[in-house]
From TrEMBL:
The keyword Phosphoprotein applies. It comes from Streptomyces chattanoogensis. SUPFAM superfamilies: SMAD/FHA domain. The keyword Phosphoprotein applies. Residues 130-141 have a biased composition (Low complexity). Residues 152-175 have a biased composition (Pro residues). SMART domains: FHA. Residues 121-179 are annotated as: Disordered. CDD domains: FHA (cd00060). This is Phosphopeptide-binding protein. It comes from the Bacteria. Keywords: Phosphoprotein. Residues 200-248 form the FHA domain.
C-alpha cells in the first residue's frame, strides 16, 4: 500500500471529529501530502553513494479562505503530514539534515483552491536526522483546485565543511563524474518534475507518480518510458493524448515535445550533463 493511501486512511478516522470541517474545504489534506511528496522528489540532492538529502522545512501558502479553514487544525494536520513525509523518505531512502517542520502561510494573491509550496534544507544545530526518525512538526497545508502554483525553492543550507552537493541527476558517488549523463524532466504549469526512474505515470490519481489536477485527465492517464528514444504511452485514458499536435496512443519524445492531456500541457525536456 502506498504512503499516500495509508495517510488517507489514517485521516478517515478523524473525519467525524476535527477533520470533518477540513474535508469540506477547497484544499484537501491528501493533496497537501502529495504536494509535499513531490517537493521532496524535485529537490532531492545526492551527496554520496549512500546519502540523498531532501528538504525538511516546508512552507505552504494558501489563499485567505483556505487558510482560515485549515489554520485552526494546523497542529494535528501538521503531525499527520510530517509523519507522511517521514514514511515516504524512509521508503525512498532519503535523509534529512534536521527536524521536519511545516508552516501554513496566507497569501493574498492566491485564489481559493490554489497553493504554493516552498522548501529548504535546514541543518540541525545538534544532530542530523535520518529518514524514519521521529521529529516535531509545525502546521502544513496546500492544494490546487485549478492547478498547483509553483514557487522558487528557498535556498538550501550547504553541506558541512563547505562541500558542494552533487546534483541529484549524477550517478551515485561523490565528486565530479567522468562522463555526461542525460537528464530528463517534464514541465507542467512552470513546475519541473524530474524523471529519475524507468517509467513515470501521469494521472489524476494520488497513486500516480505525477498527479495532474485536471477533470479531463484519467486516474492513470499515460506513462513516459525512458529509452532510446524515450516514449510516451497512453494507458487507456478517456480523452487520449496529443503529442506535438497529433492524437496518438504512443509516440517518441524529443527535447521540447509538447504533450496535451485534458486541458493540461506538458513539456518534455532532456539535456546532457
Amino acid at each position: 500500500m502506498g504512503v499516500l493511501k495509508r495517510f488517507e486512511q489514517r485521516l478517515e478516522g478523524l473525519v467525524n471529529g476535527t477533520f470533518a470541517k477540513v474535508f469540506k474545504s477547497e484544499v484537501q489534506p491528501v493533496e497537501i501530502a502529495g504536494a509535499l511528496q513531490r517537493e521532496c522528489d524535485n529537490n532531492a540532492t545526492i551527496w554520496n553513494r549512500d546519502r540523498t538529502v531532501v528538504p525538511n522545512d516546508f512552507i505552504v501558502e494558501l489563499s485567505a479562505p483556505d487558510y482560515e479553514r485549515l489554520s485552526p487544525y494546523s497542529g494535528q494536520l501538521g503531525d499527520e503530514l510530517s509523519g507522511m513525509v517521514r514514511d515516504y523518505a524512509k521508503q525512498q531512502r532519503y535523509t534529512f539534515m534536521g527536524p521536519i517542520k511545516v508552516h501554513l502561510e496566507k497569501a493574498d494573491d492566491l485564489d481559493t483552491g490554489l497553493y504554493r509550496v516552498r522548501s529548504r534544507t535546514l541543518a540541525s544545530s545538534t544532530s542530523q536526522e535520518p529518514a524514519g526518525q521521529r521529529a516535531s512538526a509545525a502546521p502544513r497545508g496546500g492544494r490546487a483546485g485549478g492547478g498547483h502554483v509553483s514557487a522558487p525553492p528557498m535556498p538550501s543550507s550547504p553541506p558541512p565543511g563547505g562541500a558542494q552537493p552533487v546534483p541529484r541527476t549524477a550517478p551515485p558517488g561523490a565528486g565530479p563524474q567522468p562522463y555526461a549523463q542525460t537528464r530528463r524532466w517534464i514541465e507542467i504549469n512552470g513546475t519541473r518534475h524530474q524523471i529519475s526512474r524507468p517509467t513515470l505515470v501521469l494521472g489524476r490519481s494520488t497513486d500516480a507518480d505525477v498527479r495532474i489536477d485536471d477533470p479531463g485527465v484519467s486516474r492513470r492517464h499515460c506513462e513516459i518510458r525512458v529509452g532510446t528514444p524515450p516514449t510516451i504511452q497512453d494507458l487507456g485514458s478517456t480523452n487520449g493524448i496529443v503529442v506535438d499536435g497529433q492524437h496518438t496512443t504512443r509516440a517518441n519524445l524529443r527535447d521540447g515535445s509538447r504533450i496535451v492531456v485534458g486541458s493540461t500541457t506538458i513539456v518534455y525536456r532532456q539535456a546532457e550533463g
